[in-house]
Amino acid sequence: MSLRKNLKDTDMLIPDDKVKFHPPTGLSILIVGAGVAGLMSALECRRKGHNVRVIERVPSPSTEGDFFTIGSQVIRHFQLHWPKLAEEFDRINYTGLVAYHKITGERVSEPEEPSFVNVTYTHPDGTERTVKWHRHNRPKFVAALLDQVKSVGVEVSYGHRVTDYFEDEEAEEAGVILQDGSKLKADVVLAADGVGTKSHNLVSGHDIRAYPSGFSILRTAFPIELAMEDPDIAARWPLYDGSRPLIEMWLGEGLSFGVQRYTDLIAWHMTHKGTNTGYESWSHHIDVNKVLEITAQIPGFPEIATRLMKKTPKDGIIDWELMWRDPRENWASPQGRVVQVGDSAHTFLPSSGNGATQAMEDAISLATCLQIGGKSNISLATKVHTKLRFQRTACFQLLGFINHQRQNNTKFAAVEADQAIYKTHIGKWANHDPEAYAYANYGNVVAHLVQGTPFKATNIPPGYEYQPWTIQGLLDDIESGKTLQFTGDWA
């Protein structure tokens, strides 16, 4: 059993009767990729009145993956604009508690809710609502997005492998070339096809360099009953207080380990110094015996943890190499008709806790900017979107780097005296409404781009003055013993 889970076609689509759609814009949008970024882009573009089509390279609806965090600001957006989908996400949410441990399994902080990500707001119906932490199983989350996309009449076609992107200034269109040589065209093309996107040559003029981080992450999720067959595993990882899911983060020197105990699934992951065996792919598996060779070298690593690993089904462990990429300020083609969203534009390490969330914020922002700009201002609208989003995503990429160092670098080793050193943190500045931000700032960014009027981003940590940075520069600072400190309020 692998992490891959086929998504079966169903007639039980999520209704759209409470969604308020904007008037048609006449814009045709082709979206490449039916993952989180692509499907969210489809929903938001459809809501904003654009004509949307989605293509995906795999031959049938399917997804792979284990668990990720979805930011409260995105869940709030669903509650406001996609209420039935929000109800489904509440139903399938795996929210729980988090505890921190040494790599030997010794607990150093008691289970707690990550309350810093909560969002409280007044709903249009007059009720005050608090959106709590959302932890989701990726296959289930993507399936819900796909169901909603189908319900609003967006076509999703499979088996279309894109080999290149293009735009035609004279014809005022963009498109993709498929593996069979055929072309698909639209007013705007969204490249939501991940780190391997073929859009880089058009957007940046070259492939984007990736730097090996020196680490790989091993990750898996499988049915809880397989693990609970062992009574010792069942005793070691029960539900907290008999009913609540619990995530344990084990931190060590040069590695980290985690166990996520849910009601129907159990997941574990290990970040370790890589051996150049991994790839950035959900389809690259590693045998559990190779994993045990790694854990055998960890002093004090408990035998009960290796027993849990041995319960993983065959071909169930993904070996994903963690790669660094510097922030890129440009995500749009020269004429602005091909735009990168999600991982195509900005990759995140798992330690950022924000890859899926920022992909969905991209979708909300871009659909809104295209609605404001309309068919006659596509190039300007996509450039405004990129300006609105760049510094914010770069801040989250920086946060992911810092969290990775906290979890895996000896200079950030866990000590009981200062829990802030090792706890993964996302500040209150993460709370953000990308739709309202686009409406409020579109004109300001146009003035900045056309007339040179100063524009200051306000969707980043308050008081932070953005300075361009590179991965190598940060690594050099750490190597020289410098403490990574930044201006502004990141709390």
Q: SSE layout and pairings?
A:
Layout: E1 5-6, E2 28-32, H1 36-47, E3 51-56, E4 62-63, E5 67-70, H2 72-81, H3 83-92, E6 97-102, E7 107-112, E8 119-122, E9 128-131, E10 134-137, H4 138-151, E11 155-158, E12 162-168, E13 173-178, E14 183-186, E15 188-191, H5 200-203, E16 211-223, H6 224-228, H7 231-236, E17 246-251, E18 255-261, E19 265-273, H8 288-295, H9 303-310, E20 318-324, E21 338-340, H10 355-373, H11 378-408, H12 434-451, H13 471-479
Parallel strand pairs: 2-3, 2-15, 3-11, 6-17, 15-21
Antiparallel strand pairs: 1-4, 5-10, 6-7, 8-9, 12-13, 13-14, 16-19, 16-20, 17-18, 18-19
Helix pairs in contact: 1-4, 1-10, 2-3, 3-4, 10-11, 10-12, 11-12
Describe this structure in words.
One of its GO terms (molecular function) is FAD binding. Belongs to the paxM FAD-dependent monooxygenase family. The chain crosses the membrane at residues 21-43. By secondary structure, the chain is of the alpha/beta class. It has a domain at 5-93 and 137-208 and 330-409 and 435-440: FAD/NAD(P)-binding domain. The protein is built from 13 helices and 21 strands. The chain has helices spanning 36-47, 72-81, 83-92, 138-151, 200-203, 224-228, 231-236, 288-295, 303-310, 355-373, 378-408, 434-451, 471-479, and strands spanning 5-6, 28-32, 51-56, 62-63, 67-70, 97-102, 107-112, 119-122, 128-131, 134-137, 155-158, 162-168, 173-178, 183-186, 188-191, 211-223, 246-251, 255-261, 265-273, 318-324, 338-340. A 7-stranded mixed beta sheet has the order 7-6-17-18-19-16-20. Strands 11-3-2-15-21 form a 5-stranded parallel beta sheet, covered by helices on one side. A hairpin with a 5-residue loop joins strand 8 (119-122) and strand 9 (128-131). Helix 1 runs parallel beside helix 10 (355-373), helix 2 crosses helix 3 (83-92) and helix 3 (83-92) packs antiparallel against helix 4 (138-151). It starts with a strand and ends in a 12-residue tail after the last helix.
